[in-house]
Each structure stands twice: as structure tokens, then as C-alpha cells.
Amino acid sequence: MKNKATNKPAVTEYADTKAQVLQRQALVENIAANGITDVNVLTAIGKLPRQFFMPAGTEADAYTDKAFPIGEGQTISQPYTVAYQTQLLRVHPGHKILEVGTGSAYQAAVLAMMGAIVYTIERQKKLYDRAMHFSYLQTLPGLHFCHGDGFEGWPDEAPFDRILVTAAPDTIPPALTTQLRPGGILVAPVGAKGLQRMIRITKGEDGQLTEELFEHFSFVPMLRGKVE
Ligand code: SAH
Q1: Of 61, 68, 105, 205, which has fewest CB within 10 angstroms of its CB?
Q2: Sign of torsion over alpha carbons 151, 69, 39, 197
Q3: 75: Cβ below 6 Å to ligand 1?
């Protein structure tokens, strides 16, 4: 049911059925079986109803471990991928985290569920607007939204303890490593379509950057400029 005046989903739509709770538990077990060991990541995914983040009418697909189209040519990331990136990020409660690519806001909500303060940027106005008016997110503290270009980061809020990029740039944007606090960690899928590799960058206390390479993934490209 939609509220016609605002086109926002009615609060009654945020129902988590017993079946969905069980499906979510099975999804978490599947992610754990695939090698995710960070209990805080698994707990957050186990608590967060992914069906709330799916386009209307597609809620039945919420607990298949797959990416899903959310409009504007974008996707809600695969739960395993969300878990993988979040585990690499080594999140602690209270961390100030910059996310590039709000999309459905599912990843941002996972980080907020883990007790982080999240600053998330989206270049597409429609997706930013949707996240801003998504009433379920108002139940999670510590989420901040920006309509902007992630290549520039969020200078007014820097430095960040953690930076998570959820669209793939060809190379790590320099503004992002600049906005990373010494001792901080950045995780991003880097490379051209079909050839992306997950990269973790750690900034030493002396400012020196160390790069580690992980598995291959498939993300939408990180594009320049914002779209109205
Ligand atoms: N984190 C999202 C995944 C979204 S897919 C989720 O949990 O659903 C990647 C998103 O990055 C898309 O919404 C895309 O519009 C956005 N994006 C791509 N390039 C960007 C940029 N330069 N700045 C901000 N967002 C960007």
C-alpha cells in the first residue's frame, strides 16, 4: 500500500514475517559457509530485513544471494558481496565511515546496524531522494546522505576511519585516500568491467598507503559527476 500524497510506502509495509526471518537465517548461514567469519557482519545481515530495500513487488527475491536491479540502471549488491566488503573493512562501533554509492542504502544500513556513523554519497538524484525519504532508515541512527560525486569524497566531514566504495573506479580516487584518517582502511573494487579486483588500502600513522589485493567481483562502474 502506498500513501498517495507522498508516494512513500506506508509504515505497515515494513513487516518482517516468520518466513522472511527463516530465509534470512538461511542466507546468513550460506554467507558464513562461503567464508565470511566476522560475527558482527553476520549479525548485522541477520538483523536487517533486506526485503525493505527491494523494489516494490520483488520482495520475494530478497533472500536469494544475488544482486538485484533497483532502477536507474543500478543494483542492490549481492549479500555475500556486502558481507565480503564489510569484513575487509574491519568495522568497529563508532567508526566514521564514508560510503560511495548509496544505491538502495542496504550496505549503508548494514554499517549503521554495526554501530558506525555513516556518510553515504550517491550521484543519482532519484536514488538519493529515495534513500532520503525511506522511512525505515529513520529507525537506524547515524545515517547521513549526500547527493554528490564520490570522486570528490565528502571533504567537509573528513577525515574518515573507513571508506567503502560500492561502484568500481578504474583507479582509487586520490581525494578518497586524502580523506582517510591515518590508521584508516579503504575498500574498493577497482578495474574495468569484468576485470575488477577488490582492493584494501591501509593508511599508516605516517600517511603511507599499503595495498592488498583480494578476489574478483562485478560492480557497476563508478562514474564522474552527479545526475539530476
Ligand atoms: N551500496 C549500494 C550498491 C549500489 S550500486 C547498495 O547497497 O545497494 C553502486 C551505486 O554507486 C549506484 O547507485 C551508482 O549510482 C553509484 N555511483 C556510481 N558512481 C558514483 C559516484 N561517482 N559517486 C557516487 N555514487 C556513485
Answers
A1: 205
A2: negative
A3: yes
